[in-house]
Amino acid sequence: MRQAAAALGVALGLLGAEPAAAQRLLHAGTFWAAFERSGGLCEAVSRSEMIAAPGRPQARATIAFTRDGKRRGELHFLFARPVRPGAAAVLTIGDQSFLLVTRGSSAWSRGPAQEAAIIAAMRRSTEMRVRAQGQGGRISDRYLLGGAPTAIDAAALGC
Fold this sequence. Notes:
Blueprint: H1 2-14, E1 23-28, E2 33-37, E3 41-47, E4 60-66, E5 72-78, E6 89-93, E7 96-103, E8 106-108, H2 112-124, E9 127-134, E10 137-144, H3 148-158
Antiparallel strand pairs: 1-2, 2-3, 3-4, 4-5, 5-8, 6-7, 6-9, 7-8, 9-10
């Protein structure tokens, strides 16, 4: 029962600012949730293990799918602070590393082949870490992957 309550708390915390009528919860797991949002967008979402300081955005990871097929597993990270201009972000899952594209406070996967490899690695691992050089110091966010495959599948099926 505590695990179900924790999962619901994570899901509610990941709902974001979008009105509840514009989104539907597809799956709530221990560390990941899946939502169908307005505009034909479905996402598997998790927050970083580190809770954001007051006044800062919560770091989170999102795997996005769209009904039109333009996004089929696009990975996006939102950091709690901006990445230094020109700096890269590196995602590590198990023994695999992936170089991500950065801009502002975000990092993205580089395309469909990398996205498929990232999702496959997420299915085999228990955690992932993304690192980047932020303005004012190093950024290192850890994400637990319990429930990620189910949330990813729910988002993919939702769209």
